[in-house]
Amino acid sequence: MIPARKLEPSENTFETIVVDVTHRCNMTCANCYLPDRTKPDMDIGRLKEFLLALPCRTNIRIAGAEPTLRKDLTEIIAIVREAGHRAVLLTNGLRLSHRSYVEELRSAGLRHVYISLNGADNDDWYEAIDGMRCAQKKLSALDNAMASRLIVNTGTILVRGLNEQAIPRMLSRVASYQARHALLRFKNVGAIGRYDQIAEEKNLTLPDLEQIAGQAVGHPSDRIRNYNRFKGKVEPATRLFPTDMTSEPGQGLWIKLTDWQASKNGLIDAGSQRRGRLTYDFKVAPFFEDVRGTPSRK
C-alpha cells in the first residue's frame, strides 16, 4: 500500500482535521475505525504546538476511540479555542448523559458536538451494532446537548434489514427540539478498522440511502441525488440536503448521507481534500488513507 501523503502542520490545506486524543473506549462497537486500545493518550503539549502551527482556522474534530475518557478534555477544548480553531467533539455520548458534564464542556468553550446514535431509540439496534443496550443514555446525551444550546450533529450507521427505520425515528426526535439548526448524518458500513464482515452486495448502497431518506422526508430520491455538493464542491459520495427544501444553509434540520463503501484503490473518499487526520508523528494526512495505513486489531 502506498503511504498517505503527509504535510507539515504549517502546510495544512485541510479544513477539517480529526485528532484522536485517546485509544481508550467504554464501548466495543462492531464498526469502530480505531479499535487498537494499546496506544497511549496523545500528548497535550505536542497537540498544542501542532494547533499553533496551523496556518488558518480549522475545524478540529476531537475524537478517539472515546475522547470523554480523558480527564483533561476541558483543557483540550480550551487549547483548541485559544489557538483560534473550532472545537468539535465526536463522542459516543455515554458521559454526556450527565447534564453537569455537558455544562463543563460548554464552559470550556465547546459549541459543536457529534453524537453517535446508531440505534436511535431502540436498544435492540444498539446491542446489534454497538454491543450495548444504551438507548436511554444516548437519548439523555442528545437531550442534554440540545438543552445546553450546543450545535448538534448525530451520526448513525445504517445496516440493511436492521435499522433502516432509524432515519424517520431520528428525524422525529430531533425535530421535537425545535433547534435553530441540527444535522443528522447517516452512512452505510465501511470496511475500515474493526467492522462487521458484511458482503458488499448486502450492504446498503448510496441509492438505497437516498431512497430511505427520501421516503422519510417526502422528497424523491432523484432530487436528493442533486444535492451532491459540500461547500460548493462536488462530493460524489455525499448528499447534503434540508428536510425543508426552502431552508437556508445553517438553518433548520438537515440530513447528510455518506457512502462509506470503498471505491478508488480500495479506499473511502480517496484523495480527500477536505478531511485530514493528525498522524502519530504530528503531521497531517488525508483521513481515510491514514486510518487505512494504521495497523488495527479486531
Features:
298 residues, alpha/beta, ten-stranded mixed β-sheet, two-stranded antiparallel sheet, 9 helices
Shape: globular
- Based on DSSP secondary structure assignment, what is the total number of beta strands? 12
Helix content: 25-40%
Strand and helix order: EHEHEHEHHEHEHHEEEEEEH
Secondary structure tally, helices: 9
Task: Report the major sheet.
Answer: 10 strands, mixed
Would you spell out the secondary-structure blueprint of this structure?
Elements: E1 16-20, H1 44-53, E2 59-63, H2 73-82, E3 86-91, H3 99-107, E4 112-116, H4 123-130, H5 135-147, E5 151-157, H6 166-175, E6 181-187, H7 206-217, H8 221-224, E7 229-230, E8 233-234, E9 238-242, E10 252-258, E11 275-278, E12 284-286, H9 287-292
Parallel strand pairs: 1-2, 1-11, 2-3, 3-4, 4-5, 5-6, 6-10
Antiparallel strand pairs: 7-8, 9-10, 11-12
Quickly describe the structure:
The chain is an alpha/beta fold. It contains nine helices and twelve strands.
Structure commentary:
The protein contains nine helices and twelve strands. The mean pLDDT is 91. The two termini are 20 Å apart. The protein is α/β, with parallel strands linked by helices. The protein is globular and about 50 Å long. The strands form two sheets. A ten-stranded mixed beta sheet has the order 9-10-6-5-4-3-2-1-11-12. It has a two-stranded antiparallel sheet with strand order 7-8. Helices cover 28% and strands 19% of the residues. The longest helix has 13 residues, at 135-147.
